[in-house]
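Quick one: co-fold with flavin-adenine dinucleotide.
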Amino acid sequence: MADPLEVRVPDIGDFADVPIIEVLVSPGDTVAEEDPLVTLESDKATMDVPSPAAGTVGELKVSVGDTVSEGTVLLTLDGAGAGGDAAGDGASAEAAEPTVAEDATPQPATDGPASYGSEAGEYEAIEVHVPDIGDFSDVPVIEVMVHAGDTVAEEDPLITLESDKATMDVPSPVAGTVRDIALKVGDTVSEGTLILTVAGTGAGVGANGGAPDEQRLPSVPAPPVEGTADHHAEVVVFGSGPGGYTAAFRAADLGLKVILIERYERLGGVCLNVGCIPSKALLHVARMIAESEEAKGQGITFAAPEIDLDGLRSWKESVVARLTKGLDGLAKQRKVEVVRGTGTFTSPNVIRVEGADGATTVSFDRCIIAAGSSAVRLPGLPDDPRIIDSTGALEIEDIPGKLLIVGGGIIGLEMATVYDALGSAVTVVELMDQLIPGADKDLIRPLQKRITGRYEAIHLGTKVASIEAADDGLRVTFEGEKAPEAQTFDRVLLAVGRRPNGPRIGAEAAGVLVDERGFIPVDRQMRTNVPHIHAIGDIVGEPMLAHKATHEGKVAAEVCAGHHTSFDAQTIPSVAYTDPEVAWMGLTETDAKARGIEVEKASFPWAASGRALSLGRDEGVTKLLFEPGTRRLLGAGIVGPNAGELIAETVHALELGADAEDLSLTVHPHPTLSETIGFAAEMAEGTITDLMPPRRR
Ligand SMILES: Cc1cc2nc3c(=O)[nH]c(=O)nc-3n(C[C@H](O)[C@H](O)[C@H](O)COP(=O)(O)OP(=O)(O)OC[C@H]3O[C@@H](n4cnc5c(N)ncnc54)[C@H](O)[C@@H]3O)c2cc1C
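Sure, here it is.
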């Protein structure tokens, strides 16, 4: 067997005696080439030292707090095999350079890894039910083949049933991580019984939502409208969220007669009423409170804020009302008729709408389904008003003394930001071993560092095992290797994912396919398997984001009007409006690694940005990923205040096929945070002057 490889600190420019702030591996861990081993933090930058080869970690020679310089031995790597000269003699510097040898021509990723449908950063929690098992019912479960936390592939068996006639395995409809198992050996089940929930990985879902690129779905001819209906439109839009109202307005602008069906009084769907907009209104307030605290270090002391919850709530409401009333006005101006009530397909051309004043029917030549998604509730929890979802959290009924947030993804962490600023002691519990799983670890680190100091606790790799309602609060028990003792909370906020509303609209009566996860598959023209029926937004797939829904809505409306349009966005950016914000687009490093795509990475630490320092916020990082050789932009990630605004430049650059030179030669105004994008590109080009340029091979 080859001698263990000594992995040393590579060339890190002019830095010396840099402290180690995190050791990311333990003896016995298997690492792949380029996996990060330790994180160093100088006064200017945070940097990971990657493994120069694949192997098993032997002995750790350093620990957190040690200071290191180029050549310091970090650890030994067993079984590293060929390429042993990659370390121990300084040659490891090459492997650690941000530039990686090129030979691939990857396409930019078309789907971001996390979205608002996946608060834990997973794609969504899917309930798996017993499928159609013919005439069998009350069949005993003889084996449960998985445990909570197990990873399963699509089609992996989950449980075995044994009737008097047959033994049958129930396979997983998706790949993902098993969450809550709802039954045990000896239980009897029938079609529809809940087996467990799986946090899916969403693999294979493109930016076009449900269908892989260019997929042509099987189509069935549109039958003529049977009988008469109370209303008729050329285009009926089913649901008035950002996808639905955009589709309705665009179709009307293209000269079509449009009816918009909505079950709630207010138009705007989740985004305007209980999602994007109210959450951002509250996050703005949270930022003001945090800034007034931070001002102390800048020579200004404000008194502690007095929080008037009624005033805060009515301000948030006024923002929502202004936007939703605006939609009413825009619908009127365009002569879009709004029919209010809960719709259900009764045939391929008719929707029955149950409203407050009774039922009505609406027939259509074409339909655009935009019925969105709903929050997932974990099974087996008590029915207690102190257990809330994001909609309840946005109501800010009170400021709980102790708040538990279940789900460390985007929604959970945004709500944590709000309640922490208002004064709650916030605890976050996340099943996976990372906050916002799916996002690159280096982008999450500054966020985690900041909130670790502020929040009561953050429990990763931990699951809520039970919640019991008591007079003095909600008694919560936890499971997992690092699980804390049971604790009592004043409120529990569930932020564990969203589920598409596909199974709730009577799609089968229209012949529209709904997959086992509840999504409606569509092609690039947003057509379902029934060619005159389109679907858009959360109901067609990940990422569940408003800006995806609106763009898909326009495509569907234009196709209805006979245009040759299709949805071909290169990427859909993701933003967590936490403090600091985390934003990314295109290919992520995590995804590149998983898919074996070689990338050239360039990062600019905000500690070297004059604007960031003048804001008192130097923890940010702007990272760009380029195609080796051509240096075409493939992806970007930004963490820091306003990252959500900054990421837009990189999305535009990706859409235009820009490369590092384009970005570095673009004159960014000074001093702005936007400069960090130009600087990161200069890091790739080697033309940076605000830092030492990284050495290239
Ligand atoms: C707390 C929170 C914060 C969020 N923040 C952001 C953010 O900052 N940025 C972002 O991009 N995304 C965010 N999202 C996600 C975003 O809200 C959704 O992606 C977006 O609303 C999806 O739009 P949609 O048009 O597909 O559906 P929806 O907005 O869900 O709208 C669907 C509409 O259809 C109606 N409907 C459903 N079924 C029926 C029926 N049978 N009959 C009649 N009407 C029906 C519903 O009432 C609803 O109005 C957030 C979500 C949440 C929960």
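If it helps, Confidence is low (pLDDT under 50) at residues 82-113, 119-123, 201-221.
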